[in-house]
Amino acid sequence: MQFYRNLQPIKALTFDLDDTLYDNRPVIVRAEQAMYDWLAEYHPCSHTLTRQDWMALKQHIAMADPMLKHDVTLWRYELIKIGLMQLGYRLADAEKAAHHGLEVVLAVRNQVNVPAETHRVLSELAQRVPLLAITNGNVDADKIGLGQYFSRVLVAGRDGLAKPAPDLFAQAAALLGLPAEHILHVGDHLVTDVGGAKKNGFQACWYNDQLRQLHSEPRSRLLPDIEISQLAPLLTLVS
């Protein structure tokens, strides 16, 4: 654990989910593959579109509607719907298919291997201070066994604009009933988590399990208050 500033007394913690409490990278790979497998099985005409075509379409529709980046579930739905419409589907048929495809992707999205250490640390922390989760993703915290530790899970899209926007941080502070400076936000992303926390008055803990070097990170704009490579040291910060 490395300290960059003296910490204010910590009266609550907020956590990012993806790539902070578990490794989300293989989950996303499997979820993407599930979409392509589903398309191949149920909508074989989609073989005319390559993966690169789908990725290009995903970026194109986000450029046309930037708000989609604040709701990854809706973004996925729109991707499937618009992709199928480009293949000749009528709107109603494309919408029906997109709902089905989204269900398939989300089922895989919620197959997450949460480490036992994450459960141990969160269980102990939850007995000491209030915990709340703030995520830009669309994992279901209850389905992966983490919802039990949090008083609330705030999700971008459903609950407001994605981090680093103020929406979810402001709601978290209001729900916790605490001044932002007494809340420590823990997350792996230097922009959405560290930058978002600091810009919104929270203390920031950078979860750096990949052992990256802060001074060489191009996205580093705001210095975290502390840096950890494992979750367990958080237990020493709250009594």
Give the strand order, joined by hyphens, for the main sheet: 1-7-6-5-2-3-4
SSE string? EEHHHHHEEHEHEE
Classified by CATH, the class of the largest domain is Alpha Beta
What is the overall pLDDT average?
96
How many helices? 7
Low-confidence segments, ≥5 residues, pLDDT <50? Answer: none
Main β sheet profile: 7 strands, mixed
Structural class designation? alpha/beta
Number of strands: 7
How is the quaternary structure best described?
single chain
Tally the structural domains. 2
Q: Fraction of residues in helices?
A: 40-55%
Shape: elongated
CA-CA gap between termini: 17 Å
According to CATH, what is the topology of the largest domain?
A: Rossmann fold
**CATH architecture label name of the largest domain:** 3-Layer(aba) Sandwich
GO molecular function: hydrolase activity
Keywords: Hydrolase, Magnesium
Protein name: 5-amino-6-(5-phospho-D-ribitylamino)uracil phosphatase YigB
Cofactor: Mg(2+)
